[in-house]
Protein: Malate synthase
Organism: Medicago truncatula
Amino acid sequence: MDLGTYGFPTPTAKNIISNYDAPEGVEVRGRYDAEFAKILTKDALKFVADLQREFRNHIKYALECRKEAKRRYNEGALPGFDPATRYIREGDWICAPVPPAVSDRKVEITGPVERKMIINALNSGAKVFMADFEDALSPSWENLMKGQVNLKDAVAGTITFHDKGRNKVYKLNDEIAKLFVRPRGWHLPEAHILIDGEPATGCLVDFGLYFYHNHSTFRRSQGGGFGPFFYLPKMEHSREAKIWNKVFEKAEKMTGIERGSIRATVLIETLPAVFQMDEILYELRDHSVGLNCGRWDYIFSYVKTFHAHPDRLLPDRVQVGMSQHFMKSYSDLLIRTCHRRGVHAMGGMAAQIPIRDDPVANEAALELARKDKLREVKAGHDGTWAAHPGLIPSCMEIFNNNMGNAPNQITTMKREDAAKLTEEDLLQIPRGVRTMEGLRLNTRVGIQYVAAWLTGSGSVPLYNLMEDAATAEISRVQNWQWLKYGVELDGDGLGVKVSKELFGRVVEEEMDRIEKEVGKDKFKKGMYKDACKIFTRQCTSPTLDDFLTLDAYNYIVVVHPVELSKL
Ligand SMILES: CC(=O)SCCNC(=O)CCNC(=O)[C@H](O)C(C)(C)COP(=O)(O)OP(=O)(O)OC[C@H]1O[C@@H](n2cnc3c(N)ncnc32)[C@H](O)[C@@H]1OP(=O)(O)O
Ligand SMILES: O=CC(=O)O
Ligand SMILES: [Mg+2]
């Protein structure tokens, strides 16, 4: 395969004709589809290109700064509060008032931008649906473009879906959840759209196309004059929030809508960002509706940030819950910070999902989710996330029972006690043990997740839990770190050291187990062997890859040249 400067397949210019009517300097290399063409109009592409051209250098700089921070952490530095922005943390400012349409966000359902799931999620009884181009979506051209088509139909209120197998027609209820959209993180390119010869920035494509087509209908039908609403993932520093704020301002200006219409909740899901919460809200203060505890990426980021610190190894993934001191401190400080600035402090995702064929296990799983939600509402969170419609009634009941009739707790749960939390609290090493079963489970889950991702599913049920890009990342980086430092698995009394040989055996045995569990036929037809190759390489590489999905993305880029001879 001929790989170009950015590592993506490069068809030569002379044998490609794009059927899309693209503006000057824009080349669309994804499959042509008449439905996609209604999204990829010349004006919409120009809108995206304008954003890309104005912000590409800012984005490149922000990503360079991430590398520089990584270099410092690798040399032993710890993330912490920035003395230069103390005036922001200590200042007495607040964010713009919360739009009435999203004042009550007690339960938010999340899910990929898949047609049936969008309808189910909007009808689920949740207050908000976060439609995901990120952790829950494998960003293939087909998924991304169908996702844009689906969202446009959803905002217009015309979305339907016919499940032919079950002869069931899905359509929207009269009352639906408010829609938030989560674009990809800054690091992911969109290889199917070149702007001035470079892959577009994935999140500007997701944001730009959705915003361009839906802002007007959305503000009228859903937002009560505000919106569209967004979730912003994986930021590491307030300079990245500043770019989003400028993107929003430019988008508002280009479309002639009022400044401050667009609103976004930022996920605090990287370790460096916990020290920047005030600064992030400050940058976005005219466009903010709060922060969210993105707990799974946060755990991933803890390992990644400290990957060169062998004194900060994590115990088994299943033991790193919200009761660990560093996780509790992060949630408490997030609540205090948000409420001080007048915006929502959203809780996170419990990974439990309903277990259909085992009532006892189902009840135990739901009880774990209920406990997690009770902790959140009592701590002062204004709402929470659910991965599945089956969890919404119990989550809603817990938040309603503990918040009375109030839509949120912004003014009633100040959590001033959390002001005393220190850098040490936020970085405290989690307690627990490392086991052979932990290594095996990481491997089994990681490989199966990558196999699903390569075949188009970005969120899957595995061993009765929701797995997505963030949870799979924990499995990957944890294996990498245990291998790198040859840690002793101390939790099961074996005292075995993790080595390449041991890991090789574990991989082989877990592949056998996966084959048995999914069946020979599915195993053969699926992409388990490719997934195993990708996952194993990432766990054993001398230097830690920044993201699992950056490497795996090369496998799902499908460029569609239309050869002149075939026309
Ligand atoms: C770390 C983070 O970033 S968390 C946020 C990102 N992750 C996510 O959003 C995960 C969202 N959840 C999901 O994708 C799914 O619930 C899964 C993959 C975990 C489980 O999916 P399934 O195995 O298909 O669930 P199940 O078979 O029980 O589904 C039953 C019904 O609920 C629907 N459903 C399940 N989850 C969702 C959801 N999140 N949104 C809308 N509908 C849903 C299914 O479409 C199905 O509908 P149907 O009966 O009309 O056919
Ligand atoms: O995006 C959410 C997370 O937990 O990661
Ligand atoms: Mg995340």
